[in-house]
Amino acid sequence: MPEKVALIGSGNWGSAIATKIGVNASACADFDDKVYMWVFEEYVKEEDGKWVRPARGAKPPEGKTWVDEGYTPLTQVINEKHENVIYLPGIELPHNIVACPDVATCVDGATMMVFVIPHNFLAPIVPKMEGKFAKGAIGCSLIKGIEFEKEGDMKPILISDLLQAEMKKSDGAPVVDMSVLMGANVANEVAKGDFAEATIGCTKPENGLKWCKLFNTKDFAVQAVTDVAGAELCGAMKNVVALGAGFCDGLGYGGNTKAAIIRIGLKEMQKFCKVFYGDRQIKDETFLESCGVADLVTTCFGGRNRKCADIFAKNIAAGTPKAWDVIEAEELNGQKLQGERTGTAQDVMKAIKAKGVVDAFPLFSQIHKIAFEGAKPETIIDMKLEKYY
Amino acid sequence: MPEKVALIGSGNWGSAIATKIGVNASACADFDDKVYMWVFEEYVKEEDGKWVRPARGAKPPEGKTWVDEGYTPLTQVINEKHENVIYLPGIELPHNIVACPDVATCVDGATMMVFVIPHNFLAPIVPKMEGKFAKGAIGCSLIKGIEFEKEGDMKPILISDLLQAEMKKSDGAPVVDMSVLMGANVANEVAKGDFAEATIGCTKPENGLKWCKLFNTKDFAVQAVTDVAGAELCGAMKNVVALGAGFCDGLGYGGNTKAAIIRIGLKEMQKFCKVFYGDRQIKDETFLESCGVADLVTTCFGGRNRKCADIFAKNIAAGTPKAWDVIEAEELNGQKLQGERTGTAQDVMKAIKAKGVVDAFPLFSQIHKIAFEGAKPETIIDMKLEKYY
């Protein structure tokens, strides 16, 4: 029986990954040709060659629908044009990707479910899938980010665990074996077909291999490691290290120093995984995969956190310090640096403090002091590194 | 008895590292205060505020010496001004660093010897040390580069092994336990006191710790791994990967692709070490040290090989291909890209072919095809990567 694949999510990254899944589902006998893609339904229309949506929060006139007003459901546009005109304009989606606004229909009989939705969609969406997907179905989360317990030891919570928890049987046992896909993946570049790599973090090698087969293409090289927690945490922790890299850039520090900050950051990411998820199978080699060193390098040279931290340090040097939210608003065209980005650095510090392991994370601690406690950016190198003699 | 330290070499990197060694030898009771620094004697004079040497190959007039001509021995200038005016101008050397033109005097009674000389100096210089250094002396090589056997299996030869071989007892047993210091270290930045890290590769942990103690300062964080071959080979192999990174830049590829090339390069560096030095204790963690990932990142974003490969790819795209030596001459102000740099990529390929392991090195192979066999730079992503399912 071929695997029945469902893609839950259709934003920028979801649509980009659909280009890989669609090709493989079509070409390979292991998979059912048709892949449903769940789309949060919106209404769109073309104006002067550009697809637009109604203003945020707007409602159609009394007694009318958006369709009456000349709009078309996004799912319909995707299925007719084979293009996600809103979230991935200009890229043709494989024709076997079928947009569908109903998540229950989407996952009906699915044996492999790919999740790529904002994580505040988890609670409203996932329970609707209950009883629809096939027994023994497996899941793969492409959702970046991390949650933290709000009290007690403030422990980090994996999004893949949250997903799995939403799909538990009545006796509490997990019904879906969850993997993750992480890596140095700027969505638009992946969609264009630029060569990129990614990492599957899985619990069972046989499931990891299934996911590799589904995602891997000539321009998207996917490898599996049996380490869900390591792969997923890398994707969140890199945003902390990128603040340190940005401070270096803003201070005009040279290559030696920035490379040292990135490397110490990678080691602290590894330590963080072991301290908080030591009960899982954290593997050292995970950090040499795309989800580890490659994603970190990309983020520390090109990411938004790096850029904002660069500006943050420059503003302090110029005697005109600015708050993070001001920098974000000014530099990112109103696009938020997102709670899970600078916010991650704060949550990570809370978790480290609650666990009583501050001394083990000299870089994370110093980044926090600079970003949120008024320490000068120059103190980035005043880490209390462990002595090695 | 305090350790008696000798520094053999006084070029840019040798003088930079003298700033760390001098401070520690002076401050720490473990070391004898005075550190001899062997200097290849040259004659210098100040002209218009700049120190100059006679033209290359020039001889003083018949019956005269350079001193008669108003020049001063470099050793004398270093010892009077505490500055290596030729190789590290503008940086004050600690006053306990004593320049000495005679290597036998330099290492007389030495218990710790630091080597930082061009490797063509090994054969003429090292034998002169015979019988002078203390019994049980240990050595540390800071020499970057690699040699290869000229025939047969073209095996890579470590410079630290060459050094040790030059100091063997008559029965062939090694007389000096050799370590190496490698890392993301641009010499001028280290000398200025910019924060940097470095890695000691050692065979015996107790010796690694001695070297850490000698080199480690607040702005120069040194850690030891018991892996000489891994640490030393990283410093040579990175120059191969940097060519691939430069091709990506020249082609205008994005962050995903460049990060993938760097990461695959790091894995092939690791594999190369294991294939050719599997009999030594190659450690996975070595590649997460400064000598591994940090030095690689610095070289792939800022090094000379990267720059020349960038230009090489751009010239091909523009329809005006240029040979490596032309690019080097034009772009590096006559400074050679050095045999051990592009040359390393060629020697590495010969060794891989001789061993019959080409398939295990898809990136190194593709870089070689582009750099030396006329393949188009765009084929950098046509690596035959291993399948993971």
Automatic annotation (TrEMBL), chains A, B:
Cellular component per GO?
cytosol
* The UniProt record lists the keyword Ribonucleoprotein: no
Tell me the residue numbers annotated for binding NAD(+): G9, S10, G11, N12, W13, G14, F40, F121, A187, R304, K336, Q338
Q: Which residue spans adopt a coiled-coil conformation according to this UniProt entry? A: none
Keyword set for this entry? NAD, Oxidoreductase
- Detail which positions bind substrate: K144, R304, N305
Annotated EC: 1.1.1.8
The terms under GO molecular function for this entry are: glycerol-3-phosphate dehydrogenase (NAD+) activity; NAD binding; protein homodimerization activity
Reaction catalysed by this enzyme: sn-glycerol 3-phosphate + NAD(+) = dihydroxyacetone phosphate + NADH + H(+)
Catalytic-site annotation from UniProt: K238
**Single Gene Ontology BP term?**
carbohydrate metabolic process
Regions that span the bilayer: none
Q: Which Gene3D superfamilies did the record assign?
A: N-(1-d-carboxylethyl)-l-norvaline Dehydrogenase, domain 2 (1.10.1040.10), NAD(P)-binding Rossmann-like Domain (3.40.50.720)
Annotated ranges, domain Glycerol-3-phosphate dehydrogenase NAD-dependent N-terminal:
4-206
Q: What class of enzyme is it?
A: oxidoreductase
Q: Name one Pfam family in it.
A: NAD_Gly3P_dh_N
Residue ranges annotated for the Glycerol-3-phosphate dehydrogenase NAD-dependent C-terminal domain, each copy included: 227-381
Q: Which family does it belong to?
A: Belongs to the NAD-dependent glycerol-3-phosphate dehydrogenase family.
Which PANTHER family does the record match to this protein? GLYCEROL-3-PHOSPHATE DEHYDROGENASE (PTHR11728), GLYCEROL-3-PHOSPHATE DEHYDROGENASE [NAD(+)]-RELATED (PTHR11728:SF8)
Q: What name has this protein been given in UniProt?
A: Glycerol-3-phosphate dehydrogenase [NAD(+)]
- Origin species, per record, is Emiliania huxleyi (strain CCMP1516)
